[in-house]
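Memo to structure team: turn this sequence into structure tokens by end of day. - J.P.
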Amino acid sequence: ELRAWADAAAAWDRYLALDPNDDVARRERGFNVVRTGQFEEGAADLRWFLARHPDDPDGHFELAMAELDVDQDVAIAELDKAIALRPDFAEARSTRGGLYYKEGQPEVALPDLEFAAAHLPNDAVTLDRLGWNYVSLDRPADAVKFLRNAVALDPGDPAKQLHFARALAGAG
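Reply from structure team:
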């Protein structure tokens, strides 16, 4: 939560020196390394992990998160794998729904975002994604409820404030 990715990666390095056979630790190290901006090095750890553990939904989710700014097609494919392995993976469904929305596919995004919002009712990002998706589907009255909650959870975010204002205007 502190976003101290470099410190977290260094802690995983120290741990792996003590237990070099802990595959999950290597996965987590790789994910934190990606977050420091070292995509290739971190993604290599994530791919190594998935080669050994192809049925790990967290590994697919973390690789998808790493790929978000690099290759969105790969990110969606990894999210699909994570969700296939764990259908109730709300964070993965929120992220995939957000990507489909950004690609201009709000109808495809909707089931993922509705599922995620039902399972993550205090996640302002998910609520904002769902609300804004409703606005794009010309359902501003549905959007208002979710965007009101998103703004209440994260009142300092101007994008959420703007989305909420537009939904209110659209709902009359």
